[in-house]
Amino acid sequence: MKTRDFLNEIKTLDIKALVLKSKTLKGEIADLVLDKNMNKLKDLKSIDKKRKDLARTLTVLEQKRLIEQLEKVSQEVKVSQVSQGENEEEKPRDTRGTSKTRSTLKEEKK
Q1: How many CA atoms lie within 13 Å of 41's alpha carbon, on the beta-carbon side?
Q2: Is 2 helix (H, G, I), strand (E, B) or coil?
């Protein structure tokens, strides 16, 4: 399977399916390593290919988990804003002259 096909396939899977896919890839890698050590494996690059597939799968899995967490946080923020009535437009503050200079900081310390 080509890399693009594999990536398109795993990107369509949900989190549970990705976890299952990663477990099966780990098992396949273990079997290939065992075959290599028993001198049964002829294509040694197949181990590297499976490891890369596993890394791709774990990367997509982590991305999906992070997206899920961000969606939960953004929903919580929206709910809290609605309950507090902060979803109305706020007037922009005038921030001119609010930065403190060294001399004003020294005066405050005294």
Answers
A1: 17
A2: coil
